[in-house]
Amino acid sequence: MRRAILLTVVVVTALLLQSTVLPNATLLGAKPELMYLLAISFGALEGPASGAIAGFVGGMAQDFLLNQPKGITALTLTLLGYAIGMLRQFIVSPSPLLPVFLVAGGTFSGILFYGVVTFLLGQMDTSWLYQLRVAALSGLYNALLTPIAFPILRRAVEGSRSQRVFRW
Amino acid sequence: MAMRTRARSTRLLVVALVSASLVTITIDYRQGDGGPLAAAGDAALTLISPLQEAVSKVTQPIGNFFSTLVRLPSIRRELEDAREQIAEFRAEFGEVRSGQMRLAELEAILGLQDSLGRRLETLAAEVIAYSVSNFEWTIGIDHGSSDGVEEDMAVIASGGLAGHVVRTGPSSSVVRLIIDPDSAVAGRLEGSGEPGLLVGDGDADLRMELVDADTDVMPDENVVTAGFRIPGVGPSLYPPNILIGTVSRVLSDEGALEKSITVRPAVDFSSLHVVLVVLSSGTG
Lengths: 168, 284
Known about the structure:
By secondary structure, chain A is mostly helical. Chain A contains six helices and no strands.
């Protein structure tokens, strides 16, 4: 229950930031992709199941605010959260920079995957060059936000990990 | 053993979530704007827009600070341009011109503006949100169906045409900007009167398509809304004679059937704060 409330609060906050404040502070025209950052962080902190759930919920919430077939972001982020969670299990590096690299690489690959899905559905309106540019810039922007967002999310996740451990 | 069971249930969970996403995509794709998922989307808009309005009111000064910081070089350029323009205007006014002709010309322009102003009933709205995605160019405004805003209504901003309403909630709406790649506006070149279709290309200039290769196009020529429908490409949502932008580039390709023209929008979409929703069609 606590986890569900946490996820709702985090997703709504991220959506509000993404639609109000951050469009005014773009990096060479690109906004960060906070839902990608969220799915990757949950995957890295809590494992593949949590990453997939956070990705699905965040992605679906974002999809319902867009004017394109709903579910594409949810599909992308479910797989991204799961993949990062699986990858994290095989990395033993204690480096504090690891989340930054995971977020940068994850966002870049995730946006490209999203591009492929929209292309296959005939919904891609932009060029591949633009897609690549946004993937690189948003990946970089998300990576820059990680040192602020990741510790906050870690504290929130650990705080919500109470009496009962939620296992899948 | 427990590990293996957990891994299996995680896989099951992911398969279930991926399937749910695929089902959602399929249902939404098939049902378009009329299905239950579209209604759920409108409900999401209704729920989040009051929050967006509150947040954007509180954070606007912070946002303005950042956007000013980011736009400093272009602001400096605009200032220089404005100074140059002032100098040009001064020079123009200094010249002795045939007074009568100029007066008649100005009166004609003023009359046209007056008639346009009287015909169009508009509603001022504040911009409360932008698109959450990097692949969609929309804005959220603080007026909705309860204020008389309906889907497909044209939206103008200081400078010219901004876009049209694509979704409405009770007290908020979503406006698709003309720079969105899904947007297509029937426009015409002011000089030759030649019509064309202006298609959005994100942050790049608009592309003006379907213009005959023999048309004479001047750089910096104004492009205004044509106010009529081009069959098969989209509804005529926009009243005629609203400025869309100015021609920024013309490429003449020998043997091509149409001219390749790009148009710089008259509206600065990076700093939209207030827009006008056109409540009447303006054609009557």
